Every structure is written in C-alpha cells, then in structure tokens.
Amino acid sequence: MDRIRIAVLGASGYTGADLVRLSVRHPNVEIVALTANTHAGRPIGEVFPHLSMLDLPDLLKWEDVDWSGLDAAFCGLPHGTTQEITAAVLGENPRLKMIDMSADFRLRDRSVYAEWYGHEHRAPDLQGEAVYGLTEHYREAIRDARLIACPGCYPTAALLALLPIVEAKLVDASEIIIDAKSGVSGAGRGLKQNTLFCEAGEGLSPYSIGKHRHAPEIEQEIGAKAGGAVVVNFTPHLIPMSRGELCTSYLRLAGGATADDLRNRLAEAYRDEPFIQVLRKGGIPQTQNIRGSNYVQIGVFEDRIPGRAIVISVLDNLVKGSAGQALQNMNVAFGLPETTALQQLPMFP
Fold first, then answer.
1. Is 247 a catalytic residue?
2. Tens digit of pLDDT for each residue in 144-154?
3. Superfamily of domain 4-129
4. Which CATH number does 154-316 carry?
5. 46-63 pLDDT, tens digit each
6. For the chain, domain boundaries
7. Where are the beta strands (DSSP E) in the chain?
8. Which is catalytic among the residues 75, 150, 153, 247?
C-alpha cells in the first residue's frame, strides 16, 4: 500500500517522542509534520537528543501544518487543548484519521466529562463519534473509525486485566479495588515540583486520592461489561522510575468462581492476542519484563481471604499505555498487520 503520511501533534512530550521513535521504523509510515508550539522552528533532535540521528522535519506550530495529503494525525497534547484543534482539523479535512492520545474524547457522557475536567466539552459532536481505542476490545469499531480516543495508561492496564472476567460475571463488579503505580514519565515532561528528582526519588507517594480522572474512564468500561453503573476504588501512586506501570486489583469472586477460573478466562480471552501474556499459575508480572515494549503481562493469585482474588497487570505507560497502543490502532484502522513496528522485545536489564 502507499505510505501513510502522518503528523504528530505535541511531539515535544514524552508520548509524542515515543510515537516518533516507534513510527520511524514503521515500513508504511512517513512522518510529514511534527508540532510543538513552544519549540516551533527547532529540530526535534535539539529537544530530544536521542532522536538527533533521524532525518525528520523541524517542529512547527500546529496552525502551520499543511494538512492536505496527510492521512492520519496523532495527538499528544494535554487534555483540554485537543478538542478545538481536532474539530478544526477534521472540519477542514474530513478524510483524515485522528488518533488522540489525550483524555479529551475518552468519556462518552458529556456530563461526566464536565464534572471531572471542569468545563463543558468543546466538540460534543465529535465526542459522540469517537471510538474508545482499547484495541483488544474495540478492534472492529476501530477499523472504520475517523476519531480514535486512546485510553489512558492506568485504564489500559486495569481494563485489560478486568474486562473479560467482569463480562463473564466471575467477580463482583461493585467491589473492585485498584492499587496502581506509575513511573514519573506518566506525569508528562512539564516542570512540576512533585516530579523533581529530590521530590520523587527514593520515595513512593500517592496522588489524586479518590479523585483521579482515570477513575470514570475505568468505570465507564467496566460498567459497559457489567451491564450497569459501577464505582471503583482507584488510587494511583508515583514511583521513582522513568517508565512502567503496575496495577494490583483486589476482587471479590462471584458465582462460586476461583482464582483458577479467572486465569483460565483471561487466557481464553487473550489466546490469540499478540501483545497480552497471561502468566501461568504462580507467575508474577514485573515492570522490568515489559519495559520499552507494547506487551502486557497479567497474573492471577488466590487471596488468603476466602472468596477473594488478586489480579496484577503491568505495561509500559509510554508504549502500550500510550504511543504503542496508538500505533496499534493506526495499524488496525488502515488494514495493516496489527503488530507492525511494535514487535520489539522488552529492554532488560
């Protein structure tokens, strides 16, 4: 097929940089435009020296992109800034596919969006059009989508571990506790006091306790499988490493199910999925096993409390939790082999 000509909006952020890193080795992709309004006019190699050996276009403002002839755009802008840009771009270029890595189109309910993000949605018509980009569960809808809303990193890790067993009614969807931990890159590249080395190093700290914006996203998807509204107990933590994410979900079993039943259901659900590894009994997921890759590991354990189980999932928050999943969705949307440019093995040690 012809080369897919893409733009990367927000290329000066961590997810944008990882999208570039993965895309340059994609045999069907040509990077035509890279935007970063605060760095416009600079080579991307000055902003990210690890990309300096690549022949890439200089950074420019998104308003200066020539959208004619482009096939897809990946958006790695902060939440709240994507809606109006996406509406403007798709309004002028309706054949373009927009693959959004921000939070702006993930929530289907406008009132829920307004509650958690502090303002009314600025592109409500597009919000209704967007397809949730959890590839393994929305693949068919993604194939024909024009606007793909890639999940957050925490929801990706949690939902991949939970959706098949919730749908099978093996656990009580009204009693889910998710203890989540992410590397510092999940906070973005902007200067923040809590992510300074002296603040984040040699320590572990919770944040957004009881009010993290990924909670309604998780609830939206679990509720769809459970057949009704649910509320989850979700607490994220900042852990002093660059990348990686671990979600430990504490679950009450239902209908006489056992931990083995959960493991078997997950193994069956993901049997043909190239990036999901359900570990054998006793196998422990670890972030060092998936670092730098698009792979996910899931492990299931019997709790010492009768009638309960523990499910642990790990992924790289910048790859499967963001840029890798976005590229996986692009492959699906353009009819390419889903694993193209995503088969690199984890970096270890």
1. no
2. 999 999 999 99
3. NAD(P)-binding Rossmann-like Domain (3.40.50.720)
4. 3.30.360.10
5. 999 999 999 999 999 999
6. 4-129, 154-316
7. 4-9, 29-35, 59-60, 72-75, 97-100, 131-132, 147-149, 171-182, 205-206, 233-238, 245-253, 276-278, 296-302, 308-315
8. 153
